[in-house]
Structure formats: C-alpha cells, structure tokens
Amino acid sequence: MTIFVTGAGGFIGYSASKALLGRGEEVVGIDNLSEYYPAQLKLDRLADLTTKFGDRFTFDRADFANSDELDQVVRKYQFDRIVHLGAQPGVRYSIENPLAYAQSNIVGHLNMLEVARRRDCSHFVYASSSSVYGANADLPFRVEDRADHPLSLYAATKRADELMSESYAHLYRLPQTGLRFFTVYGPWGRPDMAVWLFTKAILEGTPIAIFGEGDMRRDFTFIDDIVGGLVAALDNPPSDDSLLKAGGSVAPHRLYNIGNNKSEELTRLVHLIEGACGRTAKRNVLPMQAGDVRDTFADISAIQADLGFTPTTSLDEGIPKFVEWYRGYANS
Q1: How many domains does the chain have?
Q2: How far apart are CA 307 and CA 312, in angstroms?
C-alpha cells in the first residue's frame, strides 16, 4: 500500500521517503516548496528520489495547510498510512513570523488529522520536536516530563500538534505516533542548521556565530538513526488496548524521543567540523538568543523498550560524512 508523506522535499521527509522506497514501498509525497530556505535544495532532493526510484515515487506540489488544495491532491490516491513531516521549522524565525507557524503547524496538522480520520488510516506518524521541553531543567528529557512551558512559538505549535493528536486518538481511535526529534544533521541537511552553517563558513573562511557564549549542548542525531526510528515506529502502530503508552496516553497514541542519547558541547561540534574541513574556524562568540534552549539530551528508553531503537552513528562519524557530502553538493 502507498504511504503518503508530507514535506517530502524537506530534509527528514526526503530521507524517510528514500528509506521507504528503498525497501520497495510506493510513496506519494507533497511539499509546498516554501522559500524558508532556497527551494532548489528541495527540488534537488525530489529529483534524486525520482532518479533513483522512478514512478514508485509520485510528487505533487501542495500546501497541506490549505484544505482545498490538500483535498484535490489526496482524492487522487489510495493510501492507508501517513508520515506527516511537513512543517514550518525554525525556533528563531518563529519570533519574527508567528503567523506562518500557526498556519502550517497548527492548521496544517489539523488538516492532516482530518485526512487520516476520513481515510481510516492504519497509522499516522508525525514529527514533533525536542523544543517542546522548553524550560525543563531536568536532563535527560523524558517523554513523561511536563512540556507546558515552551520558550518559542515554534515549540508551542509542536506541543499543540501533540495535544490535537491525543484528542483525535481518543475521539476517533486513530492510531498515532509522535516523534520528538533531537537536532537532526547529515547529508542533504537543512542550510539553516548549525552543522551546515558552520561547515559553509569554515570552508569559505568567514566567521561562525557561536551563541550562548559557547556554553550550549545539543543531542546531535544523525539522519540515518532518525529514519531508522521513524520506520520502526511506522511499522508498529500503537494498539487500542486502553493500556498506558509512552507519553502517558491510554488512547492509541504514543510519543517517543529520537535522539543520540548523548549531549554534546557546541564547541566540540566546531572542533569536529574543523577537523573534517581541514581548517580552523573564525569564531564570533555571542549571547543566547531568544527562544533558544541551553541544553538538550534525549532519554530514549521508551523507544528502545518498545521498538528496539538504538542510535549507531556517533558525532565523530557523522560530521565527516556530512562534510564530504557538502563538499560534493556545493561543487556540483
């Protein structure tokens, strides 16, 4: 059966689609190709899928936050599973453009829940974020922790998505899994993320901006590990058995952290990128920015226990892989 993937031109959407197609699935992908970052990167990802998998990958340009536009697309296809990865990303951008987040992340998520409900989908897997933990000072972050003090509107919208999904799981018994991703990086990554920004600047000899006076830590997670956890979740929908699920629901809805289960200093990331690039960074150390969280660290015990997920790519291994890909892509 065909799998419907939103945000198929995005970093995780492309990578998940590639993995699903690689094991023989058929994928229908949609993306609105927004200009949050240059659309050419998204077009290049989509072209890579078409080149590698031919007509087993179908793409429609559509905005899932526009219900009429979405309906015109979904009526053309048969599918019984949805992987909803499309969203307006970015913590800092949400401070400047809040309405974009309300439209894409809240209205759009509700639209996709309605599609899943009307189609009686067997599983709705969606992207959440480690940002939902907000001001939580207890590390590592556990899915059982409270997540009601967001530090950015982006975080608030992703938590709202989780709550809407809980409502739909309760009312309509729609099986769902929400995945709280932790700082994803790797080949075909996003150009607004630190790994890309630092690599580009170091290779070009321009200064990198290190926020939080360099005293920030992130649970950096390689894209292949993210996709491995996502596919495992997709293949194992939660049961409607009234038992307590990860995240606290007794409806068929669970929440998982997907991280590397290791919190790394930002300065260590810079050091690894310097090594992979063979150059020393010019550093511009700056204060924390509004909306940023100082530390992230994923407790992955729930997804380990339920699905056997274990990350396999360390930061030491993943950074050279990204830099090698970036050099090739930048010079293509």
Answers
A1: 1
A2: 15
